[in-house]
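Issue: ligand-bound run for zinc ion - logging full I/O for the record.

Environment: standard queue, default settings, no custom constraints.

Inputs:
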Amino acid sequence: MKHNLLIFFCITAAALSSIIFWETDYLWFVLAGIAILFLGVTAYGSAQIQANYFVKSINKCKAGGKSIALTFDDGPDPDSTPRILDILLENDLKATFFVIGKKAVQHPELLRRIVDEGHTIGNHSYSHHYLIALFSRQKLRTDMLRCNEAIRDITGRAPAFFRPPFGVTNPRYAAVLKDLEMQSIGWSLRSMDTRAKNKYQLIQKIISTLKPKDIVLLHDHLPLTADTLPDIIGHCREMGIKIEPLPRLIGKEPYEKH
Ligand SMILES: [Zn+2]
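Outputs:
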């Protein structure tokens, strides 16, 4: 919708500029400016999940007062995921794991443990291919559906939540999510755990930006995230911030009904 408005605006601006600047030296500069604006806004909208530009994602909790939700992407991982599950269990906390389908089929026991311990599983695509944002609509649909089927085969339930790999969206995601009746879940706090060099850098990033109602993006395939999780939990406790399950805080059912 936002993109359609941009297309309308740019075409109208280009048409008006062509009339106004016809036979002047400025016409090509003005048209180039409109083209740059179009590409810039489109690129920003694709890369910024919070912009809700192509896909309407849930990027923040609605209920819960001072509560936040923890989400973990890119697992399951045979080393770090069990460590993270142990820490969550010790602290009686529930999180959401957006799993990669091809990793899930390699570690079905971890998926069963995630579910058995009361956490939520979401779809993070089957391949997590670095060019997935360029997949055709049909190829993307097959990839996302394959992840859902893998999760259903292992746990008996198919997820209704999807997190776009790399947070990149486009009109094909919008169409496939609608078709599969899935809800895109973004985040409001990107911990940058994939780039943090040590746990102090990671905890500092979280402490300095954490707010009530945040959906926190972490990665359960990273040893550093497992190392830092007790500090993150401790900080929340000191701040009086509760960690609650994402489905409760956004008021959405996390699995397909049928
Ligand atoms: Zn990912």
